Amino acid sequence: MASSRAKIQPAISESVASDLAAARRVLSFASEALMTLSASLDGDFTRAIGLLLAAKGRVIVSGMGKSGHVARKIAATLSSTGTPAYFVHPAEASHGDMGAVTRHDVLLLLSWGGETAELSALITYAKRYRIPLIGIGAKPESTLMKAADVKLLLPLAPEACPMGMAPTTSTTMMISLGDAIAVALMERKGFSPDQYRDFHPGGSLGRALVRVRDLMHQGDAIPVCREDTPMSEALLAIASGRLGCVVVVDEAGALLGIVTDGDVRRHYDSGFSARKAGEVMTREPQIAAPDQLAAEALALMTERKITQLIVLDPEDAARRPAGVLHIHDCLRAGPG
């Protein structure tokens, strides 16, 4: 038994060493290739960005095989960062999907060798209708790169697989170059966090960018009363508003304070119903701005151990309440 264990242990150790060596080789090849690609970028990259910015239509991205999978990812990244893009399968393009390409679009075609037969129909279509074509590949004399209006050349780096054939280093460079294009376009367009949130409403990043104005109760949903309102009436406003509070305002509608469930509990006595809202309210309540991140508002409520914030627009000199934010609204939205 002891002898068997002794034989198994070296075998496991050898497997670990072999696996780690393979992983490090792949990452090393990719790292070196990306550094070479970064150093090789020149004015053609800027020209490609210019073509994409000038497009009145969409960016049509295409590639075959592993390049096709990368092309799908690039199209998705572009679309989610403010540049409308669409993946067209090159083989399907010859059977009707060419109709997805318009003269207002820009083609972004990927092929390491540049001789992918399935891309020929898209290349011909681009030339026939003068649709701008950006090529990503490694062979400058290839059919794709000769036809491209802008050539984004990839360095001739070795693939990491033992046979040097499976697309590994090459696809890493393609996908990274696609990310570089998307980020450069974002910065040139001034793509904002609010736009990102609009494109990612269901994702954790999108939820983290939810603003107070997206969650606050506003208009007739804000329970309000005057400073001289009897607490018997103020209690009805608290109950009907279902926010656990009533906002106290003056004749002009300017904020004076807030009466919360907590204020009611602290001041309750035998003559409570006859008292005025101004006697019970919390003056100078905690406030939030409409453009403030909901995550920040949630942190403030948690820190202060309160459940509501009055929303004031900093541009409103009259200090009229723009809304009320309840902690439950933030928790349901999940910001942060």
Write a structural description.
The protein is α/β, with parallel strands linked by helices and 336 residues long. It has two domains: 2-191, Rossmann fold (3-Layer(aba) Sandwich), CATH 3.40.50; 212-333, Roll (CBS-domain). It has 15 helices and twelve strands. It has helices at residues 2-40, 43-54, 66-80, 90-93, 120-128, 143-147, 169-189, 193-199, 204-208, 212-215, 231-241, 261-267, 277-280, 294-304, 327-333, and strands at 59-63, 85-87, 106-110, 133-137, 150-153, 224-226, 245-249, 255-260, 282-283, 287-288, 308-312, 321-326. The protein has a five-stranded parallel beta sheet, with helices on both faces. A four-stranded mixed beta sheet has the order 6-7-8-9. Helix 11 links the parallel strand 6 (224-226) and strand 7 (245-249). It is elongated and about 90 Å long. The protein starts with a helix and ends with a helix. The model has no long low-confidence stretch (mean pLDDT 89).
